[in-house]
């Protein structure tokens, strides 16, 4: 064994953290794939109305998460192997990838924070555009397709309408939400509220995963530098 003492302890701690990092990459990849194929979001984001696709900004964060999870598994394996082999070259490469990943994660977190309300607002606007056509009493040619779009929202989110109690809404509520009885309509939640809650929960999950990974990466960068210094200063290394 080349390293000894505290450096040897650091070596095994780095291996342990890299193994956790590799597992975290697998968990993040699995969560991202679940978010991508989750029935609630998928049912809403595949909708089309008047030639326009439902906004897919949410999928940008999901695709980033898929890429991060896959790279984390690769980098975690590289770190484990480099720690066991006590290879400065492998550890240096591992440290380089860690820095790149950390920078990308910070950039993605900043983008997510700046656009945290964009996803729900875009879908609310999409819902409202269909809602306006659906309640149009003049007989818009796209009224039937608008009602079908709203039906998907109402069925998926178990909601009805925008949360208003206007006379026009009360007249068309039975058409917009045919699966609900008059009593259910009085107790049903606004689709605006349901959309905000849906994507707030999923973005919170993404943010929590990113925070856990960032903490692990900080410890790994510290241990990697310490181990590299220990290997370089050990007279037994050639």
Distance between the termini: 13 Å
DSSP helix count?
Answer: 9
What is the CA-based Rg, rounded? 25 Å
**How large a portion of the residues is in β-strands, by DSSP E?**
under 5%
Helix content: over 70%
Shape assignment: rod-shaped
How would a textbook summarize the main sheet? 2 strands, antiparallel
How many strand segments? Answer: 2
Low-confidence sequence ranges: none
What is the overall pLDDT average?
Answer: 78
List the strand order in the largest sheet: 1-2
Structure description:
The chain has helices at residues 6-37, 39-45, 57-85, 88-114, 118-134, 143-157, 167-176, 182-187, 191-233; strands at 48-49, 52-53. The chain is mainly α and 238 residues long. The two termini are 13 Å apart. The model has no long low-confidence stretch (mean pLDDT 78).
Concise description?
The chain has 238 residues and is an all-alpha fold. The chain has helices at 6-37, 39-45, 57-85, 88-114, 118-134, 143-157, 167-176, 182-187, 191-233; strands spanning 48-49, 52-53. Helices cover 78% and strands 2% of the residues.
Question: How are the SSEs ordered, and which strands pair?
Answer:
Elements: H1 6-37, H2 39-45, E1 48-49, E2 52-53, H3 57-85, H4 88-114, H5 118-134, H6 143-157, H7 167-176, H8 182-187, H9 191-233
Antiparallel strand pairs: 1-2
Helix pairs in contact: 1-3, 1-9, 2-6, 3-4, 3-9, 4-9, 5-6, 5-9
Transmembrane segments: 12-35, 56-84, 90-113, 203-227
Keywords: Disulfide bond, Membrane, Transmembrane, Transmembrane helix
Protein name: Tetraspanin
